[in-house]
Amino acid sequence: MSFQDYAESRASRLHLGAVSPKLLVGAVVIAVVVLACVAFALLRPGADASGFAIEKASASSSASASSTSADAPDAPLTEICVHVGGCVGAPGVYYLAEGDRVADAIAQAGGMTAEAAPDALNLARVLTDGEQVIVASAADVAEAAAGAAPASAPDPASTAAAHAGGAVNINTASSQELQTISGIGEAKAKKIIDYREKNGPFKTVDDLTNVSGIGEKTLEGLRDQICV
User: Fold this and answer.
1) Which neighbouring-strand residues pair with 135?
2) pTM (2 decimals)?
3) Which residues lie below 8 Å from residue 226, measured CB to CB, with a gap of 6+?
4) Which of 169, 184, 205, 224 is most buried per CB count within 10 Å?
């Protein structure tokens, strides 16, 4: 039996005699195509019951999504302890956050008094744990300046005083005192002072190699003359 005969037979059984056979055949063909498409979608690998493909997210994309959905906790700030003295409103020991500067420590101590010399300190320098910040008075600064020897010619008395303890403290020595060290001239003395004002006191004498122009070989020649 041909497909057209089958369709006409079904039409007569369903009392669809008034419907055009060609129209009936077309409807049946469309129904078969639709059923075939649905069957293909359901039987295709990786498809769920609704006919949609199931795609698994990669581990990296899942991790990225989870990381963006949760806020990362802020890293805790490290606390440092600093002693502030001299011409400030309330001298004492203060706790500040790591990265705070000399100006922050002075502000915690009540700020400078009227007698203070504001330019005697590098207020922008980053503080280190356990250090002491002393705000000098204008009178002390003027007195020290009046008694200071010319920078171009280190005072022999200063030289003797610098070596009185056997070594020059590179954390506290002035430019003149640093120049008493064999191999340290005015330029290197300035670099040492600039470095410690910017980065804080030297932890060990080996840290001196962080100063531009002072290498391991130079340090070995200075090691017996310096201390921290």
Assistant:
1) 86
2) 0.37
3) 167, 168, 169, 170, 181, 205, 208
4) 184
Instruction: Give the pair of three-digit tokens for residue 147.
Output: 């008694």
- Residue 196 to residue 206: CA distance in whole angstroms: 13
Q: Phi/psi of residue 133, each to 5°?
A: -110, 115
Q: What share of the chain is helix, strand, coil (3-state, %, to 5)?
A: 45, 15, 40
pLDDT in tens, the chain (228 residues): 555 565 556 556 555 455 566 666 677 778 777 777 777 766 665 545 444 444 544 545 555 545 554 555 555 568 999 999 999 999 999 999 999 999 999 999 999 999 999 888 899 999 999 989 999 998 888 887 776 544 444 454 444 444 445 688 999 989 888 988 888 889 889 999 999 999 889 998 888 899 988 888 888 888 888 998
CB 52 within 8 A of CB 38: no
Q: Which regions of the chain does DSSP assign to beta strands (E)?
A: 79-86, 92-97, 132-135, 168-169, 226-227
Can you tell me which residue has the tokens 């101590």? 109
